[in-house]
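Most newcomers find our protein records easier to grasp once they have seen one. Nothing more is needed to start thinking about how sequence determines fold. Here is such a record, shown just as it appears in the course material:
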Amino acid sequence: MAEFTVSVIQVSYGDEEAMADRIERVAGLVRAEAGRDLVVLPELWPVGGFDVAHWEERAQEIPGPGPVEATGLPERRWVEAMSAAAREAGVTLHAGSTVERTAEPGPEGKDLWNTSVVLAPTGDVQAVYRKIHRFGFDSGEARTIEAGSELVTTPLGPFTAHLTTCFDLRFPELFRSGLDAGADLLVLPAAWPLPRVEHWRTLLRARAIENQYPLIGCNTAGTHAKRHEMGGGSLVLDANGDVLAEAGPDQEVLRVSLDPEHTARQREKFPVLASRRW
């Protein structure tokens, strides 16, 4: 079975870069990865990972699965630009996440969500995931946006990928649910800050080791909202938790190949999952 080629784009940005300029720049980074099977971007990179004060004005509409119509409307700029980049590069694109605005509010009365999108090489929306666990406790994301409620998996080449986002990483029961839904790959975009970057690395390895699947963790670099320094350190791990590629603190592109047969061999050699009791 052929290996599955992945590019992880650890985007760096600061407050001085306009949202429209950043979208155009990152679309160029995606197009530069033409020929890869999968390209992955971080969480909330279009709107600013901690720039909560501007999320309302920067929120975008996101269409459901299917073709992305080129409307040219400002409120659709992100998804239309990412759709075009995926199509032009001929790649499956996990476009990271942005703040989505919906016509109808959620259970808490809010109409904003932290939503990630997977786009097929045709540019069509393949899958949409709304972040379940919101960071901030009683402030920030937790106060501003709605919580998603649906576990999402989607086929990516020879794998079935479980889609999660950033703070989700701290809740291992979510990943067991993805495993039970048939996932054998985890893709997790993030805006994880520098002060807790060791938690990031430790938890990513734990999720890969305990679930025995490869894991793609794409973090952000730069400083957002004037004072939030991002941790970088994007990671690609195999089903044994071994590091296949790791980024430094700045903008960087990781290029790796994943072997789907390695997961089967790892699970056969060390069949820990067969010993589960619940």
Observations:
- The CA atoms of residues 153 and 162 lie 4 Å apart.
- Helices lie at 19-31, 55-58, 77-89, 141-144, 172-180, 197-211, 260-269.
- The longest strand covers residues 92-101.
- The radius of gyration is 17 Å.
